[in-house]
Structures are given as structure tokens and as C-alpha cells.
What does this fold into?
Amino acid sequence: MATFELYRRSTIGMCLTETLDEMVSTGVLSPDHAIQVLVQFDKSMTDALETQVKSKVSIKGHLHTYRFCDNVWTFILQDAVFKSEECQETVNRVKIVACDSKLLTQ
It folds into this structure.
């Protein structure tokens, strides 16, 4: 299964990367093992979002910027309103990165 490295820039991904870097620099973990952990993290995040998340959210806002490069869409919205069945939240500025899930199964 192919994966994207999108989730490494999330909060949990950044914390994992920092921890792995520290473990490599102190000699607790080899660089090859750290890379294997990151690849597994990518696969696990993709699988978890595909199989375990059932919520649906609608998003409305002012489209500030959009870009399509290497089969990845990037949208920057201003004054975005996220609505789900339970709640509604307004965000001043949000960046959304999206890719075609069909590319993950090739």
C-alpha cells in the first residue's frame, strides 16, 4: 500500500519526528529504524482515517488560495465554518491538504 507523508506535519507527526530525532541523536535508535517507524506511522494514519472515522463535516468559507500539484490539492480558507451534526466552529484561517485515496491503493 502506498502512502502519503501528509500526516507527518500534524501535531502528532511532528512530536513523533522530534522524538525519533532525539532517539537517533542519543544512539537509542538507528536512522533506519526511525525511517521504518515513520513509514509505519504513515500507513497507520491512512488506515485509521479510512476505517475508523465515520463523522462528516461540511466546510464553508472564503477561498483565499488553492493549488493542485503532484495529485495533491491544497486549499487555504479564511473565515471557515465547520459544521457537523453535533456542533459548529468558525476558524479564522485554515489550510486543507487533500489527496485522491485511489492513489493509495496502487
About this structure: The chain is about 35% helix and 35% strand.
